[in-house]
Write a structure and sequence with these properties.
Elements lengths: L21 E5 L4 H11 L3 E6 L13 E3 L5 E3 H4 L5 E5 L5 H10 L5 E4 L5 H4 L4 H7 L4 E6 L16 H8 L1 H6 L13 H24 L3 E6 H8 L2 H7 L13 E7 L2 E7 L2 H10 L21 H13 L4 H10 L3 E4 L3 H6 L1 H5 L3 E4 L9 E4 L23 H9 L3 H9 L5
Parallel strand pairs: 1-2, 1-6, 2-5, 6-7, 7-8
Antiparallel strand pairs: 3-4, 9-10, 10-11, 12-13
Helix pairs in contact: 1-8, 6-9, 8-9
Length: about 425
């Protein structure tokens, strides 16, 4: 989907579910920006507060493209900030903090994802906001939560840190070799974002009934634990890395002619279908394979060589089709070019093309909105904002500041 396209024009007359909801977000990197981008895609008006000099830290990530002013704009920023407006305010200055607090009553949601306690120390925390705007929904995303008494409350965190602390790295690699970090993208960020969106929507609904705002506090470690639930759940039920106590499933990649096809078998009937498909019907009467407990010990010596020999006759996509047709759950293990060319993503508008501003023809690709609704139009997406692109518009419209006042603030680097 090209930036600005509308995939379902029939849904346009219905508007969007969050039309009229306004979000003021002091945000950086990915966890909160992903959440507010999703809110924006659902219709919310999101105003992003950034530092006047260089903007938020996600702009400094790699790889990057150049904006129209020759400044680097990193990939983390590009994939998390569609459909927003940007204002540059120095929250470390008293005048900047006053501007932020003056804006607060104009918004339904105030959101931040700085290190725990940072907004409180600046006088911009929940209690300050609630005193000025009792109906505000205040959402925080931090590594270990603002509320409660986590021993890690003062630690900074990126996605990889909370993923490691959730136990999922060791669960996949074991204790005897270094963990493979960030194996599925920013799970710690995206999971936190999704739970923050759930919290915001629930708090808005609660406000409809009570008229009261409240504080939504999301710890990235909590969100990641919820997403990697099998780690603690399976351990509590006796699953261990040892072969005789391993999980009794086949969830493996098998080698096809051009890569791997991933197969998951969790029932004996599925294993029997596999045996027939790959030409080993004798497995169905072999007492070793009578129950799923026998699969793990024979995976590498018997099952994998046989499935690999069968799969080698096919591409990974062809093998997946054959397996699926036989009633076995499977899919190709894709590389980025496979994903980009996959008709599924094109038909569901799941790749958005952002035109580059630095002379390179090929667009930047970012994920589309996975929330599909029959009476909500897809897009149109708007370009990520440059630092402070909308400062003058927002301060004039929301606070009634004139050009002279805004220009004075800009000269003194309170805003950009």
């Amino acid at each position: 989907m090209r930036l600005g396209d509308v995939a379902n024009a029939q849904a346009v007359p219905y508007g969007k579910p969050l039309d009229g909801v306004r979000v003021l977000a002091a945000e950086q990197m990915q966890a909160l920006p992903f959440a507010t981008q999703l809110l924006a895609r659902l219709g919310a008006d999101v105003v992003k507060v950034e530092h006047p000099e260089g903007g938020e830290s996600g702009r400094g990530s790699s790889p990057a493209m150049l904006d129209p002013y020759g400044r680097a704009v990193g990939a983390t920023y590009l994939r998390n900030n569609l459909d927003k407006r940007s204002i540059g305010i120095d929250l470390k200055s008293s005048e900047g903090r006053d501007l932020f607090m003056d804006l607060v009553p104009k918004f339904d949601v105030v959101a931040e994802n700085f290190k725990a306690g940072a907004m409180d120390r600046m006088g911009l925390g929940y209690e300050n906001v609630a005193a000025k705007h009792p109906g505000a929904i205040y959402v925080s995303i931090s590594g270990f939560g603002n509320n409660g008494d986590s021993p890690y409350r003062d630690w900074p965190a990126y996605a990889s840190i909370v993923e490691a602390m959730s136990g999922v790295y060791d669960w996949k690699s074991g204790p005897d070799k270094p963990p493979v970090t960030i194996p599925v993208g920013a799970l710690g960020d995206i999971s936190s974002a999704l739970f923050a969106v759930v919290g915001v929507l629930a708090a808005l609904r609660h406000r409809d009934h009570t008229g009261l705002g409240q504080y939504v506090d999301v710890a990235m470690l909590d969100a990641t634990l919820a997403m990697t639930d099998v780690v603690t759940n399976f351990w509590s039920m006796g699953v261990r890395p040892e072969p005789d106590r391993a999980l009794e499933v086949i969830c493996e990649g098998f080698r096809a002619s051009d890569g791997y096809v991933v197969v998951q078998i969790v029932r004996e009937a599925q294993f029997e279908r596999l045996a027939d498909l790959i030409g080993h019907p004798e497995w169905k009467t072999d007492p070793v394979f009578a129950t799923r407990a026998g699969w793990g010990p024979k995976l590498e010596t018997v099952i994998r060589p046989a499935v690999d020999r069968w799969a080698a006759k096919y591409t990974k996509l062809e093998a997946a089709r054959e397996l699926t047709a036989a009633g076995i759950v499977a899919g190709p293990s894709n590389r980025a070019p496979d994903v980009i060319a996959d008709p599924h993503f094109a038909r569901r508008d799941m790749l958005v093309e952002i035109p580059r501003t630095d002379g390179i023809d090929d667009p930047v690709l970012v994920p589309g909105n996975p929330v599909k609704m029959s009476k909500v139009a897809e897009g149109p997406e708007t370009m990520v904002p440059w630092v402070g692109e909308h400062t003058s518009d927002v301060l004039a419209a929301e606070l009634g500041l004139d050009d002279a006042t805004i220009n004075d603030l800009r000269k003194r680097r309170i805003v950009t």
